[in-house]
Design brief:
The chain has 213 residues and is mostly helical. It is built from 7 helices and no strands.
């Protein structure tokens, strides 16, 4: 049991610590495609270190919700990283790794993000929150359908069972999984705020979502 708890904690910490590294790699690829010199892959770590040394800037009319939202969003993402089987399947939180619960965690984080954006009452915050909820309204039901496609094959909505079934199943052609893979790729583009859904490097009101929030 203690080994399982350690693996669970290691999985969560590994996901949190490697997330900025993935962002640095994405930034490098984008710079190379644009013909620019790429920043170091560890640049996001330096940016985080710089931000942690700065004081928080908040609006004078911000409610406690605005202060609480970042911690709640981080907790939701850390919980999602902890229950998704990556290092091992048989972990203490494996019974909680249900696809419906996972999508619900993502939705909860998005709701707190939108509420925090609307809390201070700015026009840009409300604009970004509305667009964020529109993307959520389109992406999360599609994500559920992708998970349900795999659930029909494994006869379970638990992620460890789905992974175990698909990993040890005899080779077979499932056209539904091919369509689900395309849908999952499109959802990933939307969830990661990439073109054509969003443009992280833009300053135009027409295309910004997270920048407005």
């Amino acid at each position: 049991m203690s080994t399982g708890i350690l693996l669970q904690l290691a999985q969560t910490l590994l996901a949190i610590l490697l997330a900025p590294l993935l962002m640095g790699w994405v930034n490098q690829c984008r710079a190379w495609l644009q013909g620019r010199s790429a920043p170091p892959i560890t640049q996001p770590y330096r940016t985080l270190k710089k931000l942690f040394h700065k004081d928080a800037v908040m609006a004078h009319n911000a409610s406690p919700l605005f202060r609480f939202a970042p911690y709640m969003i981080f907790a939701c993402m850390a919980l999602a990283a902890g229950i998704v089987p990556t290092i091992a399947n048989d972990l203490p939180f494996s019974p909680a790794a249900d696809v419906i619960a996972l999508v619900g965690i993502f939705a909860l984080a998005r709701v707190f993000l939108a509420l925090a954006a609307m809390d201070i009452g700015t026009a840009f915050g409300s604009l970004g929150a509305r667009r964020e909820m529109l993307v959520s309204f389109l992406a999360e039901p599609a994500l559920l359908m992708v998970f349900f496609t795999a659930s029909l094959i494994s006869q379970s909505t638990e992620l460890p069972v789905i992974v175990e079934t698909l990993a040890h199943r005899e080779f077979a052609i499932y056209p539904s999984l091919a369509f689900a893979a395309v849908a999952f790729w499109m959802i990933s583009v939307a969830e990661n705020a990439r073109i054509p859904v969003d443009n992280p490097s833009t300053h135009l009101e027409l295309t910004m979502i997270h920048e407005a929030m």
